[in-house]
Amino acid sequence: MQIQIPESWHEHLDAEISKPYFTQLAQFVDTERQHSTVFPPEEQVFSSLRITPYEKVNVLLLGQDPYHDDNQAHGLCFSVQPGIKPPPSLVNMYKELREDLGYSIPNHGYLVPWAEQGILMLNAVLTVRAHTPNSHKNHGWETFTDQVIRVVNAKSDPVVFVLWGGYAQKKVGLIDTSRHTIIQSAHPSPLSARNGFFGSRPFSKINEALKKAGKPEINWQLPNL
Question: So which domain of life are we looking at (predicted)?
Fold first, then answer.
């Protein structure tokens, strides 16, 4: 696996990727790619870190596992590549965004414009075998992404952490709630969206927290492609 940690993250993560577990993780992913299709493509595994440099992280949105169907995953949680139909969780996010802020729903699921505004769109696991959800969990990715959460938590300026669903909310212990804002609710998946995601108004809450911290608010309106 090509370890393409972007320059702005080097000083924060170089010690982590030199640990034995990460070497084993990289070997596991390489072996998987030799025998199976793995998503996202190798050059996109660290897209979330590349698109959102460390110093620009104002929001951390935590997902769980990359999309596992063809041409979907490209390294940002909840986002799919251009031309790919938005998956159900993202459809529900768009519905809530429309209810929350009145924005129109775009004709795609490509969320890079959000990441470019300072939202680190991080999955807990960064790779997956095609058509086999959670196939790369418990191989080391969670240890690495927990460290990403820790180094974002260590930023001197306030960050908004967005934790949807029970899996993401288990990471609360990694976050200093006296300095940072946590926004949490049910997950937007069809299984749970009606149990507390719909009506939670996360998008306006994120902007309120950013405004309070003297940071630029997110323009959530995505242009059609």
Answer: Bacteria
- Domain spans in the chain, listed from the N-terminal domain onward: 7-212
Instruction: Round to whole Å and give the CA distance between 111 and 73.
Output: 11
Output the CA angle 124-125-126, nearest 5 degrees: 115
**Are β-strands 181-185 and 119-123 bridged in parallel, bridged antiparallel, or unpaired?**
unpaired
pLDDT in tens, 163-203: 999 999 999 999 999 999 999 999 999 999 999 999 999 99
Q: Tokens in use for 97? A: 């965004």
Q: Which CATH architecture has domain 7-212?
A: 3-Layer(aba) Sandwich (3.40)
Phi, psi of 120 (to 5 degrees): -80, 110
Mean pLDDT over all residues of the chain?
97
DSSP H stretches of helix in 64-201: 88-101, 112-115, 141-153, 165-169
Q: How would residue 2 be classed by pLDDT, with cut points 50, 70 and 90?
A: confident
Look at the chain and count its residues. Answer: 225
Residues recognised as catalytic: 65
Nearest C-alpha neighbor of 158 from the set 118, 99, 105, 109: 118
Of all residues in the chain, what percent are helix, strand and coil, respectively (each to 5)? Answer: 40, 10, 50
The percentage of residues in the chain with a pLDDT greater than 70, rounded to a whole number, is 100
